[in-house]
Amino acid sequence: TTQERTTMVFIAAAPLWNVCVLLLMTSCPTTIAFSAPRKKIALITGGNKGIGREIARRIGKEPDFTAIIACRNVELGKAAAEDLTSKNNGNENENNNDAACDVLACPVPLDLTDPNSIQNVANWVTNEYDGTLDVLINNAAICFNDPTLYGKVEYTPFEDQADITIRTNYFGTLNVTRSFLPLLEKSSDPRIINVASYAGRLTILRSQDLVDAFTSPTLTIPELSQWMDRFTRDVEAKTHTQNGWPNTCYGVSKLGIIALTRVLARDFPEMMINSVDPGYCRTDQNDNG
């Protein structure tokens, strides 16, 4: 008999990297054993620092996995991979000298706002790994916790934050997923893990119509994308609050990611597709505070 697979979409209370490893170790009922042993390939977007780097480290230490760091700056990705594969796996506080860490950096830059960049990375993985990817972890994102990103960019008023935030976090993640779906479909045990956030909880919406739209069991990706575009337009027109949207571009982008995860899990039942919340972590997003 065919065992039915349960779609899991949840917010995790445990550390994200532990959850990611747990999800990787959990077999889908549809899993087919490999005819010849090979390491599974996991690609982590934004894996050169912060949460993405720690995910890469933890996955790279799993004996059956190779972790690939994909990020905008190839040199930073290379430096992170070299550090993670050093004697102490890039963690001075952990006694793990005997544990090998199989991490490498993608030599092709990944920019979530550039569809050509995304496709170039997918092409590189295709050429390097026989057209197969086993795990995609969509971690890369932008968040204006500070209007200057703590001195990294010019002051960005709220009405100018929506476009880059939604374009990066939602549409960029969507484009990455679409580009890698053909590679994931060739895996015997494919899975996608989307890094979400408590900031994207449904209660940030101030309109029941919006809640109903984002939670509709028949929601499609084109419909969801239209709602994300509408938020951007409403913010730019300064009408978002009267239309039921919150004052958080990052929150809406993650709300979109959670909804996208539900749609993908419904449309691709042969894959294990989840969204997880890392909780509060000291990263560049909060100026390491």
Summarize, please:
This protein is 40% helix and 10% strand. It has helices spanning 16-25, 50-60, 74-84, 115-128, 158-184, 208-215, 221-236, 249-267; strands at residues 40-45, 65-70, 103-105, 135-138, 191-195, 272-276. Strand 4, helix 5 (158-184) and strand 5 form a beta-alpha-beta unit.
Characterize the structure shown:
- The protein is of the alpha/beta class.
- It is built from eight helices and six strands.
- Helices cover 40% and strands 10% of the residues.
- A six-stranded parallel beta sheet has the order 3-2-1-4-5-6, sandwiched between helices.
- Helix 5 (158-184) packs parallel to helix 8.
- The N and C termini lie far apart (52 Å).
- The model is unreliable at 1-14 and 29-35 (pLDDT under 50).
Radius of gyration: 19 Å
Largest sheet: 6 strands, parallel
Number of helices: 8
Task: Estimate percent helicity.
Answer: 40-55%
The proportion of strand residues reads: 5-15%
- The backbone outline, from C-alpha atoms, is globular
Order of helices and strands: HEHEHEHEHEHHHE
- Count of beta strands: 6
Distance between the termini: 52 Å
Mean pLDDT: 85
As laid out across the biggest beta sheet, the strand order is 3-2-1-4-5-6
